[in-house]
Amino acid sequence: MNTTGWLKGLRVTADGTGIVSHAGVALVRALTDNTGLTTGLSKALASDRLLVHDRGRVLADLACAIADGAEVISDFRVIGDQEDLFGLVASVPTAWRTLDEIARGGDRALGKITTAVNAARRRAWAGIAARHGALPGIRVADKTLDGVTCIRLDASVVTCHSDKEGAEPNFKGFGLHPLLAYCDNTGEPLAGMLRPGSAGSNTAADHLAMLDAAVTALPPSFRRRLMVTCDGAGASHDLIARLDTLAARRGYQVIYSAGWELGGRERAAIGAVPAAAWQIAVARVLPLGASLTVIELDERLIEFLRENVPYARILQGDALKLIQEVSCDVLISNLPTRVTESLIALLPRLSFRTAVLAVGESTDLNQLGPEFTWREVTTITGDDFVPPQSSMSRIVRVRRRNAV
Asked: Which of 140, 198, 215, 311 has the most C-beta neighbours closer than 10 Å?
């Protein structure tokens, strides 16, 4: 099958006649062909029957329609209506027949399709590496982590408004509860598991299957340094054990993050820890050439700080006055909300590149003006403290626009 025949002679001009709707989907369709996905699907779904429409082409076009915004199979006709651009395209009934044939093929057909998709991914990622040297990095807080392939495991409740197969009542209403694995570097799905709406959280077997499928979907050269994350609904002892096993292989690196909600039991355990057992979460050694200045108003804490942060320069006094005498790259403040309002007014006169501030829920940071940019990093609610508090704070990062 000549999968790229429709591309021959295709040009984009501004002086033609008529209108081509959804013309941008041609780029996605060309990508499926040039990465070998269409050809791979054609081989996976090959049949001894004489067919007018190659099933690999039909399935690839269905994927293009979804990328173009299709929500139901009948939206597939949008591509078929552009015969001048795409050539002969299968009808909606043919698309349904193709899906029915795949369903009858069961796990064997699904395995062949997965193999074709993974092969196309290897070719696409090889092109990315050849042009850019590596995959895009992943965002971690306010930094970009390069050289690591990140897999994110997460379930998603899909609401259904009618009685679909597998749709069941769940904690968000009624629908399905699929489990997905995505590559954070490229934003693409690596694996998925269809599950009924009543499928529970912390299902170790499902998450282990998705983890294995996602790692298999990665091109081999991108499996050496992995990051795997899941939220509290995905955490389980079995999953952590599997991740530790993957990390123990010679020549491989696996880092992971699994969420866990602090419930009453955990909070009670934290509250029972003796005060003498706590340690300050500050590095004991600073990098060469770096320095740290700490400003503290309460004189009762000065000796404690000097003992536990021996490398820091400790200043005791009014922070709003002393900060004007200090030049720094990074300014970190957890002053009370009322004092922080005064600090914000001082920022244009201070010497710093980046500031991380704890501000009140209603603090207006637009008052900083065009010299600064800011964004909210996270929020801290009263329940995040032991014992709980009634107030809430926002943690924001402020940067000068001309900071290097």
From this structure: 215
Closest C-alpha among 81, 84, 95, 86 to residue 6: 86
Tokens of 91: 């009808």
Strand-strand pairing, 354-360 and 330-333: parallel
Q: Does the global pTM surpass 0.90?
A: no
Number of domains in the chain: 3
Q: What is the dihedral of CA 213, 217, 223, 227, to 10 degrees?
A: -60
Alpha-carbon distance of 230 to 258, in angstroms, equals: 5
Order the strands of the 179-183 sheet from edge to edge.
Answer: 188-193, 179-183, 149-155, 225-230, 253-258
Sheet architecture: strand order including 158-159: 158-159, 173-176, 168-170
Domain CATH for 213: 3.30.420
Do 124 and 169 fall within a single domain?
no
In a domain, 2, yes or no: no
Q: What is the pLDDT of residues 337-370, one digit of tens each?
A: 788 888 888 888 888 888 999 888 888 888 888 8
103 within a domain of the structure (yes/no)? yes
Strands 149-155 and 225-230: parallel
Amino acid at site 101: E
- Assign 3-state DSSP to the chain and report helix, strand, coil percentages, each to 5: 40, 20, 40
Q: Could you tell me which of 391, 280, 281 has the C-alpha nearest to residue 336?
A: 391
For 19-69, the pLDDT digits (tens) are 677 778 888 999 999 999 999 999 999 988 888 899 999 999 999 999 999
Domain interval for residue 348: 276-400
**Residue 356's closest CA among 380, 379, 324, 334?**
334
